[in-house]
Amino acid sequence: MTESIKGTLYVVATPIGNLADLSPRARDVLAAVALIAAEDTRHSAHLLRHLGVETPLVSLHEHNEAQRIASLTARLEAGEDVALISDAGTPLISDPGFLLVRALRERGLRVVPVPGACALIAALSASGVATDRFLFAGFLPARGGPRRSAIEALAERQETLVFYESPHRIRDTLEDLSAVLGERHLVLARELTKTFETFLAGTPGELLATLEADPNQARGEFVLVVEGAPVVDRDPERERGRELIGAMLAEGVGVKQAAAVVARVLGGRKKGWYDEALSLKADG
Question: What is the pTM of this model?
């Protein structure tokens, strides 16, 4: 007996604003599958009507994803194809779907991406901030204390940082970015691919002033693209010398003697190490 052919889950990217951004392939997949699992069926129904697609919808969101896995797995194992979409953009990118995809992969079922719009990539590509390395951190915590702690934990990262943010928290987030990162350059991208798409660039403080002057700029969905921490040139020998001097000063060795010992061990001018020792003693 031949083994029955199992279905495929298609992870389909949908537009983040401009409906023309949906690919022909995505439209064909949505029309051909037996079922579409959508984050919000009412929202997605508008898109399907626009496309002339009548495929049935079932909800899959953060509150019911775990419960949907068994029924969707059964349909795939029965040979039906299913599409997964979110409200906008690429599923699983700060949207539901990870639990389902992981479960299907573990069962050996086929999962196929249908690429398309993604707010993260769209904002980054047009921001003018370095794109060779970046860290996407999704949404920052909603409450002030945890949010500031999260920013502090990322403050020394040298790659570009990218966050999503909602309109009712954007001012608070900019205030925390200002407090932690100071004059760091960032780009605020809002309403991407929509009529009022805007890119604002500056320091967190400057962008706060812009939002205060024009409240309309605080509306919509946001992507924050933050310049990474500056690269600090480090001299390993100097750092080792300062470490040795600090240890000796802590043990009560005098500044002059500590500088002489380090000059003898590591080389270099005794006067230079003496100045380092004075600096460490003043800081301590």
Answer: 0.80
- Token pair, residue 63, equals 């509150």
Greater confidence (179 vs 4) lies with: 179
Instruction: Please give the structure tokens belonging to residue 284.
Output: 């301590």
Longest dimension (CA), the chain: 88
- Average pLDDT taken over every residue of the chain: 94
DSSP letter string, the chain: -PPPPP-EEEEE-B-SS-GGGS-HHHHHHHHHSSEEEES-HHHHHHHHHHHT----EEE--TTTHHHHHHHHHHHHHTT--EEEE-SSBSTTSSSS-HHHHHHHHHTT-EEEEE----HHHHHHHHS-S--SSEEEEEEPPSSHHHHHHHHHHHTT--SEEEEEE-TTTHHHHHHHHHHHHTT--EEEEESTTSTT-EEEEE-HHHHHHHHHH-GGGG-S-EEEEEPPPPPPP--HHHHHHHHHHHHHHHTT--HHHHHHHHHHHH-S-HHHHHHHHHHHHHH-
Burial class (CB within 10 angstroms; exposed 0-12, middle 13-18, buried 19+) of 119: buried
Helices (H), 11-118: 24-32, 41-51, 65-77, 98-106
DSSP type of residue 108: T
- The pLDDT score that the predictor gives to residue 281 is 82
